[in-house]
Amino acid sequence: MARHTFEPARYFNSIGSHSTALTIAPGDTVATTTVDGRGFDAQDNQVTQSGNPVTGPFYIEGAEPGDTLVVSFDKLRPSRRRGWSFKMVWPTAVEPEYVRHLPWPDESDRLATWEVDAEAGTVELVRPSDTSLGALVLPTAPMVGCLGVAPIREQVISTRTCSNHGGNMDYRGFCEGATIYLPVFVAGALFHLGDGHAWQGQGEIMGTGIEISLDVEFTVNLRKGKGICWPRGENNGYIFTVGNARPLDQATQHATTEMLRWIQEDFELDPAGAHLLLGHCAEYELANIYNPSFTMVCKLPKSRIARSQRDGP
Amino acid sequence: MARHTFEPARYFNSIGSHSTALTIAPGDTVATTTVDGRGFDAQDNQVTQSGNPVTGPFYIEGAEPGDTLVVSFDKLRPSRRRGWSFKMVWPTAVEPEYVRHLPWPDESDRLATWEVDAEAGTVELVRPSDTSLGALVLPTAPMVGCLGVAPIREQVISTRTCSNHGGNMDYRGFCEGATIYLPVFVAGALFHLGDGHAWQGQGEIMGTGIEISLDVEFTVNLRKGKGICWPRGENNGYIFTVGNARPLDQATQHATTEMLRWIQEDFELDPAGAHLLLGHCAEYELANIYNPSFTMVCKLPKSRIARSQRDGP
Amino acid sequence: MARHTFEPARYFNSIGSHSTALTIAPGDTVATTTVDGRGFDAQDNQVTQSGNPVTGPFYIEGAEPGDTLVVSFDKLRPSRRRGWSFKMVWPTAVEPEYVRHLPWPDESDRLATWEVDAEAGTVELVRPSDTSLGALVLPTAPMVGCLGVAPIREQVISTRTCSNHGGNMDYRGFCEGATIYLPVFVAGALFHLGDGHAWQGQGEIMGTGIEISLDVEFTVNLRKGKGICWPRGENNGYIFTVGNARPLDQATQHATTEMLRWIQEDFELDPAGAHLLLGHCAEYELANIYNPSFTMVCKLPKSRIARSQRDGP
Amino acid sequence: MARHTFEPARYFNSIGSHSTALTIAPGDTVATTTVDGRGFDAQDNQVTQSGNPVTGPFYIEGAEPGDTLVVSFDKLRPSRRRGWSFKMVWPTAVEPEYVRHLPWPDESDRLATWEVDAEAGTVELVRPSDTSLGALVLPTAPMVGCLGVAPIREQVISTRTCSNHGGNMDYRGFCEGATIYLPVFVAGALFHLGDGHAWQGQGEIMGTGIEISLDVEFTVNLRKGKGICWPRGENNGYIFTVGNARPLDQATQHATTEMLRWIQEDFELDPAGAHLLLGHCAEYELANIYNPSFTMVCKLPKSRIARSQRDGP
Description:
The structure is a homotetramer. Chain A is mainly β. The first copy, chain A, has helices at residues 248-266, 271-281, 302-311, and strands at residues 3-5, 14-15, 22-24, 29-34, 54-60, 68-78, 82-86, 111-117, 122-127, 137-139, 143-149, 157-158, 162-163, 166-168, 179-183, 191-199, 210-211, 214-223, 232-234, 238-245, 283-288, 294-301. In chain A, the strands form 4 sheets. Chain A has a 9-stranded mixed β-sheet with strand order 1-4-18-6-15-19-20-22-21. In chain A, strands 3, 5, 11, 13, 14, 16 and 17 form a 7-stranded mixed β-sheet that branches. In chain A, strands 7-8-9-10 form a 4-stranded antiparallel β-sheet, with no helix packed on it. In chain A, a hairpin with a 3-residue loop joins strand 19 and strand 20. In chain A, helix 1 crosses helix 2 (271-281). Chain A starts with a strand and ends with a helix. The model of chain A has no long low-confidence stretch (mean pLDDT 96). Chains in contact: A-B, A-C, A-D, B-C, B-D, C-D.
């Protein structure tokens, strides 16, 4: 149950069997930092190349293929005041015929600037300052856009995209207080994380949230001999499953199927019960419709499961 | 501002230029009833053929192509106690390889039965009674699954599917208190509605909600000379737009594009402001991934628009 | 076995239970004409409104729901010299990010003009005359872009789109010498046809072929009590099935499934044989990736079926 | 212009910056071998693990990011007599509701056996021998299912899937006589190839062709400073471009866009000419609808380009 403080010396723009950054044990907590999606750190200096550089990998002792890695986000905090975002809804999110009507900014002027006030819990649009919006002030809701483990078949996969190993999922639910489950494909699991957002809209339809460097604390655990097919998670209110694919239909199918597996395996539901419960109580959250693989989350309120179980035989 | 009570004498399994059931004027309120998706009425008698039979059409005086029809749902109440649903998550919502593992019920045993208690505000699973779930009690949240106007090009479109005229969208947000905007394609608009649900899960992944007959009161209005491309709506908290298509990506594109149009046309936002606002504040709700066209809803919190406008010049 | 000459007096922009234009019997042949997609006839006069106006409907005596209508195209000939097409590959066929780089022509200058020389069997680009292409001369390959029967559930469906009743499929294989099978959903079947092309590229990626009015001769027959799910056809070399849907994946799924049904029902193949045959001998042809529903055709060489059957027990 | 004979000592189940197997120079020819998709060699011994093991990588001297690698398949020959295939059309190619009606074979009985007679130029179904097909004899048409170069961002990507670096595309056109163009992302390009098929149906709807080990000869060249976005190729009749993605729509979009780029960059076509030519002369070939990314090929007959250019100014 050690507590590690880890200052990254290098970053990766892909997730795979990179050389271990830190070896930790189940139950350990790590305090570390992440740079933003373009490689800028807490001092707003570019310390590595752009493209969702990730911190890690963390080698979890005892993790073996077929296990599940459990990551709890104990703390996620923006580590600087300046955030940035893109400025235009991306073509993947609009009608094909409408793409030419989008307000394509100049290549040199693609970024909006935001001021993050962690104490006030706000992010405020700073530039452009001359839109018809006037002020735009949003709450902070820090999240990790990209997290995952080394993929199957010794693959090394870009942090721009995502699959069953996790990756660039851009889901708002990967926030402080969330516990995330990832399938382990290689010894040590090799957990990576990065691409923090101080806030993000659903669907990440611009292609960014409000991008920021983060101070992160997370705790890892293992479920030995317990495999899963797609990332899962839970928070106070929900259990959830994450599907990453295109089109959104397929992402939805992965998430729904994984939830059917989960509630039948771990919550003692027979097929009849699992289908009636999920069929009537599922909620969905569009995480991103921008990355090479889109992400859809299937959520089930814990209150429904508890009630079902309580009232059960 | 008349109030009409209309008892349907016939129903349609399609939306189009059927002979007018009742002529009403802008500002009028109609109290009427709908049968359930298999044609069963408040007495649980089958009074018309199965397949989402709809009440109407209502001819709105003065409605002309290019206008927008405004429908406010003043009251939506289940009109009987027995509801029904399917029992299995449908293949469109699961991985292709998983379809053969679904618990396909016998054709003669496809329906679950539910007890609706409108006073208690609950719907309870009655049959099957032997699942591992034990009891499953959900709140009532009555909604209209299918509503729309006569389509473009004098089409007559099945109430199983949906498009820009509305139709079988199965969106939980078409509930009491909601105001819905529909494009007018023919004189009189010809509004139809039916397929009530006492409750429905997001995505309607079983292919049904808890199907029920309804008592309905709605009020119509017109926005003359104001056209829209896709159904829109609003409630206390949100404005929303509805895209109907396959794959979900395309449904999402229609909804997002329609929202971009709306906030630029009606809320005095320039493109820069509209994109930053929607890009960071959009929410999405999966309405159905079952019908021939899937439905995705793009929502924008009214609080964000108001704040933006208030703080603006 | 009558031969009818039918001069259309009116046209429809949708397919459904329109009033019968001509009643014919199984075995009868009809010589008639079609206008082009914008309603221009053999004299290049606009005689009806734009939007794929179709000739018909032809009521086939004895056709009942559950039968299959058989239509043989005995003759398809361009009936004038001027054809037209669009000039730009459409956004549905290119990467979303590329849409803004397309050479969007002015709304008033969207059409290219072509000269059809039926005797020489050529179509030649006339205007624009100043492209870097210089001349572009293609062979004539006349086809009917839009053909179908009244849909299920008394629907009336726009001739812009297509579904299991046929419609705007824009498949090059609907040409002289082809025999087409369509499911019958209403008494009389109500066959419509129009939207002739002197030539069309695969995928119809511009949204048009070389649009032309046609002289058509076709012969109808019925397969009583024999239902099909999707349009089918055959020519000298192939049997084929037609799937209409979005995305292309779904269109492909319909076509493939329909072919699996066909070869098991009509060619005495067991599942093992049907799967091995189709799995190794299927060919696919992209008909259109432009219409509201895309069209994919699954083809099976007759030589493979004959050989399989000949060598069989 | 050396000629190398290379006997692979190891294989990879992914494409990336693996240690170089052989360094060659532009103009060089390599004679080598590939094992089949399950790792069986010319003696039908399993020499490496299953899952499309590939031969290579071949380091091409002078290849740098931004170049194009040119690979000509001089010879592709089956190197043994026994081939195998799956036996069932896969769920991705059929309607979701139809999946449960597929003839799922036992896990232990998933493979059909084929006899390849290279001299006679035939492949014949050996087992199962009791289908209603009787004999099924197909011509040999050897092709390489999986070929590619190390991907962007130092990724290592499974040979089960494909992207812009190539990979498991399963296109029948990667056959003897074809020249293939691949974008170079890393120094040396690192060309890999494997997964030979003696024959394959279009769409690879079973998930396999007739899988076989191959004797291969290929010659490499470079186009220095000339980048491409997606794999391209040519043969006697066509130039072609290859899009790899899901859904098929997106694969089609990549292929079409890449062809528009190609004909404008290399064939001196202005946008007006390029669009008219491709819009009317494109052909499409469905390569696979089975792999994690589907593959669609856009083809343009060389005769059309030559004629256009000859007739041009």
